[in-house]
Amino acid sequence: MTHPAYVRSYGRMLRLLADRGHELHLVFRRIKTGESLEAVRRIAEDSAGVTYGALPGRSSPGFDRNRRGWDVLAERLRFSIDYLRYLEPVYADATGLRARAERRAQPFVRRTARLLRPAGAHAVRPFRRVLEGVERSIDPPPHIERFVADQKPDVVLVSHLADLGSSQSPYIRAANRLGVHSAYPVFSWDNLTNKGLIHDRPELTLVWNDLQTEEAVELQGLPPEGIDVTGAPAYDHWFEWKPGRSREEFCREVGLRDDRPIVLYVCSSHFVAPNEIAFLRRWLEAVRAHGGLLAEAGVIARPHPRNAAQWGRGTIEAPQFQVWPRFGEEPIEQSSRQNYFDSIYHAAAVVGINTSAQIESAIVGRPVHTVLAEEYRDTQQGTLHFQYLKADEFGHLFVGRTMEEHLEQLEESLRGRPDDGRNERFLRRFVRPLGLDVPASPVVVEKIEALAAGPAPAPDRGGSAAELVRFALRPFAALTARSQAERRKEKTKTLTPIEEVRRRVRRMGRDEDGPPVVAGPWDGDQIGELLFWIPFLRWAQSVTLGMRDRLVVLARPQSAAWYEGIGAQRFSSADVGGLEGARAALGGGEVVELPTSTVDELRAELARQKPGGRPLNRPLEFALFDLPELGDVDLPNDFVAVRFEHGDAFPDTTENAELAASVVAALERRQPVVQIDDALVPQAEAIVARSSGFVGSYGTLPYLASLHGVPSVALYSDPAHVAQDHVALANSFFAWPPFGRFTALEADATAAVRTSELLAEARASVPA
User: Fold this and answer.
1) Would you say 294 and 411 are in contact if contact means Cβ atoms under 8 Å apart?
2) Which of 11, 98, 182, 679 could pair with 202 in a Cys bridge, judged by C-beta atoms 3.0 to 4.6 Å apart?
3) Does residue 404 share a domain with residue 337?
């Protein structure tokens, strides 16, 4: 699999295989999110026959640096061949897809295609066939062939064989060379049409329906006898899910009125809609201007999890409108899946440009709408898979050719338009062609078992002319190797410090069998520990497969609980000291140090990271802290915690003492207040974690409150001693649930009133 998030779609199939006694080894090219890696861990923990690891890379046994030129040459050829497919007549209107593929093609291929294209497809096809023959003559990388051979599998399964430049094609080629069964269970609805070509034929391709069978034969050139229809395993769980909240609970959590209908706008990927906020803003204005039920309907925008960065740069503020979840979620964990399902279930209608969420909404039984947007014409109407959703014969979308037509259709759905059977008709054709009561995953498992039970295929050595072609390609492979080495050298020279750290951590994590990685102890300020060091360690173990099991954390006793869930082992720095003490505690063997200076020197750059950015590239991963033990302390219900202590940012002055008293008085007019005096300081974190809000002087506690999901207001009177980088980072990451909103407020004559109002506003945004 490309990354563990694929478990979202393959999870049922994998668990069924494990339950039936098969051994599975899951391997990934990279890690996308910590949540997806946790989902894989759970499958492995629940099933004795499941293991997982990283796909082989440059540090793998058998990797030959002298072969690097061949591997890059093969990849460049695949990208170029994938571009040439988009010169076929069937893709005449697919300008967006063609432009995307063209950017990855080699200049020589682009120039040749421009010369041949005026003569038509019959002139381009022979050129493509020649390149395909050349590419197929190149042996699979030795480290990949050795990896497959060492695993001794009965079947090799690949998840995304038709991606542009297919990084998984060498695994099928290695299986074919070794005489090992291979299968490709098609991952998604668009994989055979708007990505790349299948360069190496798997023995068995498992498609969803007759439409994908046609795509596999006509667009991918696969033989019909190697294709079986199973239905869509990616959607099996959708037919079984139930809502987890009542409508009233859902509206209260999201922040919408429960006496108005809800429209769910499901956002699309970056390729389909790169600047969807701008379109959504115009769409929302048109919705409100239309009047009727649309004037006050609740509207939820659900960001696409791989196009969420735009929501870190801007948002839309409007009545009865919410972005939820704020930066999208991969529906992998139980809670994120429930959020996704409930948002569709409680909607009266769903709107989207071109996204698989429009299929999932049909399964839930909601009317699904789209508007033909001119700015997305290339990636909406210009894609083949979108046509299935709107097909006259079986499509389920209500298609608005103009905005006004779309809004009329949308209002009809909000008024309760009778079901005309379009969702069921679509599902029977596209998602479950074997019957709505026949899940696809068991069918896929049976097909894989039948494949494994058959005689192994004869090894495919690549054809008699392959050796001659490889001889002719040697100069090109050598040239490619030199240019690639120069490019890597130049890229290394221009790496930023934060890119250097990312590269170092990922390289460290690739060595799953390497020595323990000792991190810490952090000996600086607690705010830096909360905002930089701990989130960095959480990120490091989330984006590398081998890091968590090798990570050993040294923590100060007073902050040890904050490291819960980080690393495989944790030692108190009071007991073992530093690196040498940890080495001795681990048995005296080799260890690798991950020093705190790695992060401390990058605070300013790390503070500029945004929560909507790709987790792989953003070296900070925040998570709520566990609730601390309270001890023998009585607390009222629904109270605000307060702690003012003097320091550089809030000096011991008469004005500050009077301000603190006025703040407490203003808060007490709204609800109970618990003042954390010196006697309660040992329980301060536990008290704050149980409060509905925290107010105090600028320092560690306001940040800690946010990490317990509690909104906080931090007051200061000397701005020179407030780290604006810290404030900016907290404002970015703690602005939305599940974290508590963080506000740093300069003390003045209005501070008491403003503090009370800010806290009330922040508390109102926290889910019940």
Assistant:
1) yes
2) 182
3) yes
